[in-house]
Amino acid sequence: MEKTRWYKDRVFYQIWPRSFKDGNGDGMGDLWGVYEKLDYIKSLGCGGIWFSPLYPSPGADCGYDIADYMDIAPEFGGMEAFQKVLEGAHQRDMKVIMDLVVNHTSDEHEWFQKSRQRIAPYTDYYIWRPGKPGGKLPNNWDSLFEGKAWTWDEVRGEYYMHLFAIKQPDLNMDNPLVREEVKKILKFWLDMGVDGFREDVITFVSKAEGLPNDYLMPASKGIGLYNHGPHIHEYLSEFQRDVLSHYDCVTLAEAPMVNPKITLTYTTEGPEQEIDMMIQFETQCADCLFSDYMPMPFSLRKLKAAFSSWQNKLRGKSWNMLYMENHDHPRIISRYGSEQFWKESGKMLAACYLFQQGTPFVYQGQEIGMLNWRPESPEMYEDVQTIWQYEHKAVNKPAKKRLQRLWRASRDSARTPVQWDDGENAGFTTGKPWFYVNENYRQINVAQQEEDPDSILHFYRKAIQLRKSLPVVRYGDYQEHFKGSGKLYCYTRTGENQQLLVLCSFAGKPQKLRIPAGFIREKARLILCNYQSEDQRELRPYECRVYLLD
Ligand code: GLC
Ligand code: CA
Question: Is 135 a residue whose pLDDT tops 90?
Answer without folding.
Answer: no
